[in-house]
Specification:
By secondary structure, the chain is mostly beta strands. The chain contains 2 helices and 10 strands. It is elongated. It starts with a helix and ends with a helix.
Length: 163
């Protein structure tokens, strides 16, 4: 039994994801969102899937090497070594007359390795969309749980990875 536990532990790969970008974006502008996937080990993570959901009010200008299907940009990586990071950058365009705050969730999962900590497989950021500075706009929208969509996205990836 100890051998089985040791074999399982040696295959664990703790993936974590983060997203960063601007806090505000004006109508018609473009901006970049940077997604970073980190493997905290102890093993290399194989067949890593990462996804970013593009909300209403934004459109994809560049997938940063990913594949866009509907409102989601997906990336795949063969493997990520223990301690290594992958960075993806998506460029999005703000729709004309877009107003309010949008949530941009991301999630990641490995098909080949179990993850000992699913809590860090999802992240989200918010961006306030609206007129350029000095023009009238609408109030920001508050989100009670900004990680809810990111967690759903990560859960979907986990179901794909481990049916």
């Amino acid at each position: 039994m100890a051998k089985t536990v040791a074999q399982t532990a040696s295959k664990l790969a703790d993936l974590a994801i983060a997203i960063s970008g601007p806090a505000r974006a004006a109508d018609g502008s473009t901006f970049a969102e940077t997604v970073t996937v980190t493997n905290h080990g102890p093993a290399s993570a194989g067949e890593v899937l990462t996804a970013l959901q593009v909300p209403n009010g934004l459109s994809v200008a560049s997938t940063g090497g990913g594949t866009r299907i509907g409102g989601v940009v997906y990336w795949t990586a063969g493997s990520i070594a223990d301690g290594a990071k992958l960075t993806y950058t998506v460029t999005v365009k703000v729709s004309a007359h877009a107003n309010g705050t949008v949530l941009i969730p991301v999630g990641t999962a490995s098909i080949s390795n179990p993850d000992p900590n699913y809590a860090n497989n999802a992240a989200a950021t918010t961006v306030r969309l609206g007129p350029a500075t000095g023009q009238a706009g609408h109030a920001a929208t508050a989100y009670r749980n900004p990680l809810a969509l990111g967690n759903r996205l990560a859960g979907y990836l986990l179901k794909l990875a481990h049916p």
